[in-house]
Amino acid sequence: MLKTGGHIDYNTEVITVRHVSKSFGENHVLRGVDLKLHNGENLVVLGRSGTGKSVLIKLISGLLKPDSGTIEVLGEHVDELNEKELQQLRLKIGFSFQNSALYDSMTVRENLEFPLVRNKRHLSRAEINHEVEDVLDAVGLLNTINQMPSELSGGQRKRIGIARTLILRPEIMLYDEPTAGLDPITCIEINGLINEVQEKYKTSSIIITHDLACAKSVGDRIVMLLDGRFERQGSFDEIFDTDDERVKPFHDYNFIT
Ligand SMILES: Nc1ncnc2c1ncn2[C@@H]1O[C@H](COP(=O)(O)OP(=O)(O)OP(=O)(O)O)[C@@H](O)[C@H]1O
Ligand SMILES: [Mg+2]
Predict the structure, then answer these.
(1) CB 54, CB 208: distance < 8 Å
(2) What Pfam families does the record point to (predicted)?
């Protein structure tokens, strides 16, 4: 599957990370990271387990503070915001976590209403219904509206999790391993969904993945975290056009049997 491309504005940066370092004791995880996310872009972040990909997302969303360097998100300096300002900013960021658990005791409809009722209190009943149905339709699961999460497959739950994130109409989506633990066909569906979300909701996204098929089909641009920095970036083919022994095994493991 080839990327059909969204409408990317390379002159507008929605996230700018400059020279960010983060250590936990003697564990120097990020060592001067620079990263840009452009408006409308799907940016894939690759890197071995433990290289700091999830830490990076936590820094971007203000859940962790950098030791040094600056992070700008939608024009705001994340490290200078107070808790209330951070909460406001986070409403514009959608997080799709690896184990984005749904509430098991609530129906799909109730799961989706939850963030709306909490964060957009001015909405009427009819508006809430409309929003819920719109995002469910976008993820192709309108027919599950009255079901319980336990009645859904892993891939369906993942889609509902993405719908629940989309319902607040975030400008930025952060996907942490969206296809982890799913079978190849479901992975292809989720990749398609990530591209549809980019098109329909005009989101700018960071997608963290170990799945190179995912990287290839969703990434407008790919960056690879190596030894605490983004040393390689470009298109899928550019990233892997190297003899670097830290990079080659990623490709070979995924594509050579
Ligand atoms: N709150 C924390 N306190 C101490 N160490 C932490 C904390 N969060 C992360 N780390 C450490 O930072 C490093 C990077 O962790 P991170 O979760 O970002 O890895 P990752 O690249 O997302 O890996 P994976 O691909 O397995 O998800 C790890 O060594 C981890 O132990
Ligand atoms: Mg992680």
Answers:
(1) yes
(2) ABC_tran (PF00005)
What single letter denotes the amino acid at residue 69?
A: G
What is the C-alpha separation between 106 and 101, in angstroms, rounded?
12
Helix, strand or coil for residue 76?
A: strand
Residue 130 has which token pair?
């409309």
pTM score, whole prediction: 0.92
- The answer, yes or no, to whether any atom of ligand 1 lies below 6 A from the CB of 47, is yes
Pairing of strands 229-234, 76-77: unpaired
Residue 123 CA to ligand 2 centre (angstroms): 35
Calculate the alpha carbon distances from 105 to 101, 132, 164 in Å: 12, 18, 16
pLDDT tens, residue by residue, 70-82: 999 999 999 899 9
CB distance 21 to 78 below 8 Å: no
**Amino acid sitting at position 74:** L
Domain segments of the chain as ranges: 1-92+173-257, 99-169
What pLDDT, on a 0 to 100 scale, did the predictor assign at position 3? Answer: 67
Could you write out the DSSP letters of every residue in 186-200? HHHHHHHHHHHHHHH
List the residue whose alpha carbon is closest to atom 9 of ligand 1: 55
Report the pLDDT averaged over residues 200-213.
Answer: 93
Judge: domain 1-92+173-257, CATH 3.40.1190.10: no
> Which amino acid is it at 9?
D
The count of other CB atoms within 10 Å of the CB of residue 201 is: 16
